[in-house]
């Protein structure tokens, strides 16, 4: 049974240490897709029997889910190859989200490549599926399933490449603007307006066009899908453009103003020195081994292990911080220090760690308590 997070999501796997999570609402969307797909499959393959029709419907939905996973893993692989490891994969049937940890040497063109790797993967799956239909001798139900999954991958590739946040094409557009102008905020705002334009186009094509031009009521499934997808795009664009009171407040957030001091030590540092650093005012001891952040030590973790000095107690001998440090998830490290992006980083870190470690200009500069236990 998948583990559940504090937000109700299910952790179904861990890949390279990064959790793969799925929201229960995605299952509802899966059922909607299956229900809308069944009549078409039944009319095309009814002669093969109800069992075959059901198997094709289930296989198609699972194929779409697998395609979304491969899409997100492509983002993770591209980021890893260029120096930034994924921290979390979130899956939805219409797409997903890959969150990354910190990177010491990162620039806009790498964001562009990472963003477009997902749609490129869906395009590759569509190409493979199309070739398989035409070059391999398979039964009609299997060919029908491959055709359906390939067609959905083509739709995923085209849709995710549209130039609007939070779609991959939107992040690619933002990265392109940043690469040209050096202004990250401008890039995000351009992509956010692109997102609103995408929603307007989707609403026109799927809802208003049939109603205005042909006098037809929009299909219920199309209406539900447009609402679910459009809502996420509008919400993201709204935040970036700071059109709401909450987002305006988040835009003023600066994590550096909340940061507490840290002390960076090597992995073979005695625990006694870590306790001394905490006693001298450091809120968190960061254990590093070269460029790698191994883990953290704070008063709470030492108390849990019975290693925090009590007055008059004998010192702990032969214990190093490597042996007692708490592994810090990638989601608990951020280079986003201000605005909505910083607020989002704090939200993600709260699920996995007591601390959010700040990285500025490649240096570990401080840590903000998340409120988690």
Automatic annotation (TrEMBL):
GO MF terms listed in the record are: metallopeptidase activity
Known Pfam families for this protein? Answer: CBS
Q: Where is the CBS domain?
A: 259-302
A GO biological-process term: proteolysis
Looking at the UniProt entry, the stretches that span the membrane are: 12-38, 44-70, 138-159, 190-208, 220-241
Among InterPro entries, the record links this protein to: CBS_dom, CBS_dom_sf
**Cofactors (names):** Zn(2+)
Is the keyword Membrane in the record? yes
Give UniProt keywords alphabetically.
Hydrolase, Membrane, Metalloprotease, Protease, Transmembrane, Transmembrane helix, Zinc
Q: Which domain of life is it from?
A: Bacteria
What family is it from?
Answer: Belongs to the peptidase M50B family.
The protein, known as: Peptidase M50
Give the originating organism: Actinomyces oris
Taxon lineage: Bacteria, Bacillati, Actinomycetota, Actinomycetes, Actinomycetales
